[in-house]
TrEMBL record:
Protein name (database record): Peptidase S1 domain-containing protein
Domain Peptidase S1 residues, every copy: 52-100
GO terms under biological process: proteolysis
SUPFAM superfamilies found in the cross-reference section: Trypsin-like serine proteases
MF terms in GO: serine-type endopeptidase activity
Top-rank taxon: Eukaryota
Length: 102
């Protein structure tokens, strides 16, 4: 038995859309309402902070889309590069992260 190919194309970028919606919520913080007894969501997106320099540690879950790339064996790992999670299987990093120097 053979089936006709489906006319419907698989959704592309579904995981990206899902994670974008999830990360969009992370720009809000919940603050106590100064007038009432409840809380409100405060958009921190326009809050500008200087670039992280001089090895300042990131807070837990501060950059959930980032990955730390290590080299070596599990007893002696050197954490030398970073990247961005672009899917469940792939990390986008700079070219020099994979350059063996030869």
């Amino acid at each position: 038995v053979c089936c006709e190919p489906s006319q419907r194309q698989p959704e592309r970028g579904g995981k990206s859309k899902e994670m974008c919606k999830k990360y969009a919520e992370s720009v809000y913080i919940i603050l106590p309402d100064p007038i009432g007894s409840g809380t409100f969501k405060y958009d921190t997106c326009a809050v500008v902070e200087p670039l992280i320099t001089n090895g300042k540690d990131a807070e837990a879950r501060e950059y959930p889309h980032m990955a730390l790339i290590g080299y070596g064996n599990k007893n002696s790992i050197s954490w030398l590069c970073g990247g961005s999670l672009i899917s469940e299987r792939y990390i986008l990093s700079a070219a020099h992260c994979t350059d063996s120097g030869s």
